[in-house]
Amino acid sequence: MRTWFWIFLFSCRGAEEVKQGVSLDQDADGFHEDIDCDDTNAQIHPEAAEICDEVDNDCDGAIDDLDLDLEDGSVWYIDTDQDGYGDDYNTQLACEVPDGYVEQGGDCNDQDSLFHPGAEEDCTLPIDFNCDGSIGYEDADGDHWAACEDCDDQEPYANGGMIEICDGIDNNCDEEIDEGLLQTFYLDFDSDQYGNPEEYVEACDPPEGYVLNGWDCDDIDTLVHPNGLEFCDGIDNNCDDVVDEDDALDALIWYIDQDEDGFGDVNTTLSACVQPTGYVESATDCDDNNNLFYPGAIEECDGFDSDCDGESNDDESVDASVWYLDADEDTYGDLDESIVSCEQPTGYVSNSSDCDDNDASLNTEGVEVCNFIDDDCNGVVDDVDSSLETLWYEDSDNDGLGDPSSTQLSCFAPTGYVAIGGDLCPTDGQKEEPGDCGCNVLDEDLNGNSITDCLEPTCTTSSLTGVYAGTGVLTNHSSSPPYVTEEECLQVAYLAGATTIVFSQGGNYPTCYYGPDTIRDRFCSGSSCGCGGGGCWANITLYECVYP
Prior knowledge:
The protein is mainly beta and 548 residues long. Among the domains are: 389-443, no CATH class; 453-546. It contains one helix and 20 strands. It has one helix at residues 486-496; strands spanning 74-78, 91-94, 101-102, 183-187, 200-203, 210-211, 252-256, 269-272, 279-280, 321-325, 334-341, 348-349, 391-394, 403-409, 417-418, 458-467, 473-474, 500-504, 511-515, 536-546. The strands form six sheets. A five-stranded antiparallel β-sheet has the order 16-20-18-19-17, covered by helices on one side. It has a three-stranded antiparallel β-sheet with strand order 2-1-3, with no helix packed on it. It is elongated and about 205 Å long. It starts with 73 loop residues before the first strand and ends with a strand.
């Protein structure tokens, strides 16, 4: 009896980037995808052997019996006389039995159904009906059984008196071969000494690649069999129908996490491939009943070891203070010499403002004096300080006299400062006091009228003709020389602060009149004016002035 099995090999194609113009060989069988009809299976390529598996193994477009290159399959014998035995010299290799063919050969006359192995021999006829090479009473095999009574006269171990042994021969001539003596052998494809329970043959001796047991649950993987070592890999390595048991060699140890802080108790464990509920991988919790205590927790100065480092109130506490060494015991510490601690260490203070921790007189409360030392620890030596005696005045106009409102105390004259103050015009290098014009303007009388230029008004002029009809201030109203000039008129009027000035050169003599704005109303103009009353004026110039 022959049993055929189908072996399917699967491969997974990983994600790959296929560059344009490049042919890939993804199953690494030596044939690129452009000629490989299945580039995901290394057993299929143009040079593979065609076998009976309903697959085009050699990529020639023909499958199994349709492929002339079939190398696998069974040998079938043509049975022309349909006696169940075929002609040894007329065979066909195929996966399935072809029409008119049988599995058993040995027919010595395939044109006559009376001739075939096991046929009854006629001792009266010199004819070999059972195709054993002997006729009649011949005893070709010398087993003392005539050919007509012997089921195989070419085999001395086959006759009616033999005991059946397992040798592939009908020893006792009962038309059964090896009855009750065959053993079942299982294909061991991966050569791990354990066979595939679904692929077996019955034989006297194990064929090559077969074993007596059918206990393998994966005959493709050498590491998978009943005696395999279990790993956490999603595979039933030891064929016990359980995947990734807790006793797998690489199973992890998990620790109970009762307070659910992500850290477990080293004293309560489970072994498993997959994390059990309520368990974690870390075993570093120092108090699994309090979720505020775990490695990395915030350590505080409270007497508890919150971060599970074996220490309480350690230097890493978030509320620990920085303490600074006070070597000179002046209650001021050295910034460069510090420690962190929950409690104040001996010889340390909380401030770090001492600039010289070897001299108790030097600290932020020190008095700065002119001694080339930073007495008050403000980072500046002999700097501006109320304790220094020399007062310096800012001289921004560089006239040698300083501004009394801008001063500095210093051991040495700061840049831009002088020792003498009193400059009331600190931005005017030509004046120390404002004078008539104020700072930054010179007191000049360029026109020589005895009035400082900056005090002179700005005047507009206009002409009037008419009669003066009132009284006012006159600088000169004399009919005899020397007559008043226009310059003299304006000078006197400016000094008096007059806003309206009238000067006439007509008539009998020049006349100057000045006063407030209302004096303008004392003149008439135009044809309606006569020369009565106060007299007739002519060539009158009116000055209307605005003072700075």
